[in-house]
Amino acid sequence: MMLRVGTIIPVLGANKISFAGALVFAAGLGAIPHMPDAISLGAIVLIAGAAFGALDVAMNTEAAALESRLAKSSMSSFHALFSVGNLAGAGICGMLLRQDYNIASCLGTAGICVGALVVFAYRRSPSDPQSFQARKVGSSTRTSYNSAENRRLLLLGGIAFLALFAEGALCDWIAIYLVDILHTTESTAAFGFATFAGAMALGRSIGDYCNNRLGSIRVFRGGALIVAVSVSCTLSTGNLALVFLALFFAGLGISNLVPRIFSSAGRSQSIPSSVAMSRVATMGYAGLLLGPPFIGFIAQSTSLVTSFVFIAVAMITVASGSRLTDWSKQI
Q1: From the centroid of its chain, how far is CA 227?
Q2: Which residues form a coiled coil (predicted)?
Q3: What DSSP letter does each residue of 160-183 carry, written as one string?
Q4: Which of 301, 57, 318 is nearest to 167 (CA)?
Q5: Exposed site from 85, 125, 126, 275, fewest CB < 10 Å?
């Protein structure tokens, strides 16, 4: 769905795709707890996932177009709100469950909130957003583009794959590492994950300032290297305070990688921004999906410590591809 939506956005507009995708996703959230069997549950999850994929590509395409019009970095701020929303949603649902509300109430409330917010936003958005029209390149029916840009976009997608591979692996395996390797309590492990996730939100909130002041390539390369060093420090010490410090810096370092990659995808010179965004996002989220099970497979075959080495290597590779995020740089 993410690949297909890139060709639909130039026809219908990013705002309409965002509106439709968010509404379908909101309806899916509310419907999930009421499915009577596994088949219907699988169907509704599939539909909701496809809607969210379309929403993701459309939102990032429009955000990249707005960033281009502003002529300064702003993508990290949008992703910071995504991170804050994740934390807020988890916190609110946790409080509801603690007050003896069931999961149906949690998902239903979430669906209503998403639906209300998207209607509010859509009613105040331009019917024919010039921001996207300004970034649309060529005809929406074109199927072949500059071969050099195609290759560069493929490489950028590979960087997105590795960045989200590492992000997904860290999100899913940090707590398990703390419990199994450092023998902490589950509550301490949860705090370790919160440290990482909170640092990501913080990093994205200041990411645009850093990009505008220091340069986006420096921030991107430095962030990836900070993650690699932080993961290496985590593996080399048993001191819990140092591990938590390393997790904090890992969250800061990784926070602005994906926003910068998506921003770069939206600045493609000859390929329509929505098509470029859909390709890069699809490859990136493939990494997000494959990262955690790959780490688990390596951990089962060798050890969890060994599996984390792959995260550090992925980050070093991402850092080496930092020039791909700037279309003015030759590769």
Answers
A1: 16
A2: none
A3: HHHHHHHHHHHHHHHHHHHHHTS-
A4: 318
A5: 126
